[in-house]
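Feature request, filed as a ticket because there's no other form

It would be nice if the structure record came with a short human-readable summary line next to the tokens. Right now we just get the raw output. Example of a typical job, pasted below so the devs can see what we mean:
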Amino acid sequence: MIGYKYRANAIEGKDSTRDIESLLNDEIWASSFRNLNDPFEATYTDEISKVLPIFNQVFNVNISDIQKNWKELMAFKDKLGIYSLSTSDKDFPDNELMWAHYANSHKGFCIAYDVEKLEDSEKFSLDVNRMTINYSEKPPQIEITDIKSPNFIIKLFGTKSPVWQYEKEIRLLYTNYGMKKYNPFALKAIYFGLNMDKQYQAQIIEKLENRDVKFYKMERKDKSYNLVPTLICENQRKIENKLSSDQYEILKIEHNHTVENFHVLYKGIKKDKESLIIFSSKFREQYATKPSNINIYDNKACIDLIGKYPLYGKEKTLFANHLIALSMFETPDDIWLYPDKYYRLNNRILGNSL
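Raw output as currently delivered:
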């Protein structure tokens, strides 16, 4: 998913290009709730406090622990960090009001992020949660049954008034507010506003020269009130001895929080260990954005078996015959030839010895 962040860049009367500096340093600022521009953030109707005395009187339930946990949760809110992004129904940031309100009347720029990679930038997956904002005429009612609900956090921290609906907001909710470093591969594109100073545009393009980033200039579409982007530049990483596209085909990619799994069809002639180690090393340099496992196949016949478990009979044999190598993230400079065959052979030997 792509999320857009509209940035003001340089503000008149202030000698600051903080937004450019953060961009070039691969940093985002997760704000605290009290510093957001909506004074009604995390507003709710408290139904819990109303029913607790009734529980105490009718059922003689000790409510002190519930009250304590509720107070602790509300105190925890002050530690949370929020990073807001906007979505678009198109494949570019076309929101005129967002450009006007958050990008300094088009003197700024807009960043396109891979949201999944922003999330994966945190060391632990529980340190960040993504939510899509729900717009409602009334604040949510928080009841005692909500506390154990998996949607409780979204209901409490992801509800806003319909006046904000034009933002089409998604947000990343961090366990602590403050500056966050992100995976450089999360940055996909930069869109320059209609009125952005050309010297700032040139600065950004130059500083991001060894990155896979596209740069667009927003333009007015003739005979309409619409904005359209024009591609003005595309930077790419400098990779020596880049793999030729006729040497491989990516069959499947699985993105996990800490590890990526690539399933690749190898079209090369040499299938010895040294050749496959060189191939996996070059492939990682081109595609991996984090520690990765590379599963190498020599035939597409097993593509429908990838991820299927368990495998039996002919399917198991087919998969074992065509999974010719595995390069694991723990030992990226080594490779395991025919790993499934090796695993089956060891199991057979072990079974015969028992």
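Something like this underneath would help us a lot:
The mean pLDDT is 88.
The first strand starts at residue 2 and ends at 7.
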